[in-house]
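U., I forgot to send this yesterday:
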Amino acid sequence: MTGFGEARRDTPAGTLLVEVRTVNHRHFNANLRLPQSLARWETEIREWLRQRISRGHVNASVRLETPAGQPRGLKLDEERVQSYLALLHQLSDRFGVSGTPDLHTLARFPDVFVRDEGEDFEVESDDLRAAVDEAAQANVRMREGEGRRLHDDLEGRVAAMEAGLDQIAALAPERLAAERDRLRAAIHELAGGVAVDEARLAQELVYTAERLDINEELVRFRAHNAAFRELLDADSAEPVGKRLGFLVQEMHREANTIGSKANHAGIAHRVVAIKEEVERLREQVENVE
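Result:
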């Protein structure tokens, strides 16, 4: 699921600014952007995020803003500048090269500028973890809000499938009676006035009714729906996405079986509608942890 969270925490080393962004992904995949001074914490930050966010593509950035009076930028390495000047004068004197060193000449040596780290303050582990946790929790709250909306959508699709199954169940007896009458008429027509063994005909009609019976599929489909709803409403921190995905596969299997046995336009149309809902469920379940 998509989510965003941020945190700001003041520390003796400066102000920590943490942002955590997530998008859907089947596994946990973290991409971190850290300043060089915090690079050694990369493994720990990754694990802290994993504890809060079980899956998703996570982009996390950490910045450290230094407090006033502790500028961190570039400064001159005065000893190195003096060494360069001495060497340049030595070059001029020894080989008779004319000219004197100027700003343009010295600026061509990039190592005369060094990073100014200011006073040596270290970011404490507790401060860093607190900031990362706060940003991750804000991200999770946003994802949970999306999860509630997703729950309502999934619940609505299961309800739509239940309504379709009720309609199919209502049409099933009509279909069996129509098929029985059709077979009886066809057999009598083929017999051409010859007496038909009614007992054998009744037996064949029973076989046909058993072959076309969809009651077991309807029962199993409704059981999958009930299990799906139970997982949706479960008050547990455990991930349920994979189990929901398995149930969706079983729903699709039952819908296919009902469709293959339908032999009835009304039932076939409702099976198509149910399979469309199953496919939408499949897409949405990919976003569920």
